Amino acid sequence: MADDPELEAIRQRRMAQMMAQQGGGGGGDAPATPEEMQAQDDAKQAQEEQRRAMLMNIMQPSARERLARISLVKPDKARAIEDMILMAARRGQIQEKVSEPRLIELLEKVSEQSEKKSKVTIQRRRGVLDDDW
């Protein structure tokens, strides 16, 4: 009976469900089987490959190289630029391939947006000795 493949499959599914409940707080969003997990990974890889292919068609080689260098240092900024380029292409706003100067303009736009978000305020505390001076 220990060699029954159907029983073994049931045990594996049950074990995966128990692991998902312990790790995710009982969330049913986690896949129950390794096959489903593999299918999700394959789908993500296919989506990323499609994204890269679209960017290769939309961007000039010099712009792609610059974006690759940026992604090494700031992957979130590079991803935001990629998203902007892909959205503009989907809307039909890009008539020609994105050049390096156009990419620099987009980078400056993203940098301005991120600068506006962060603000540092320094408050100096007055000590006991400040009154004496």
Automatic annotation (TrEMBL):
This is Uncharacterized protein. Belongs to the PDCD5 family. It comes from Chlorella vulgaris. PANTHER family: PROGRAMMED CELL DEATH PROTEIN 5. Pfam families: dsDNA_bind (PF01984). One of its GO terms (molecular function) is DNA binding. GO terms for cellular component: cytosol; nucleus. Gene3D superfamilies: PDCD5-like (1.10.8.140). InterPro entries: PDCD5-like (IPR002836), PDCD5-like_sf (IPR036883). Residues 1-50, 112-133 are annotated as: Disordered. It comes from the Eukaryota. SUPFAM superfamilies: Double-stranded DNA-binding domain. Residues 41-50 have a biased composition (Basic and acidic residues).
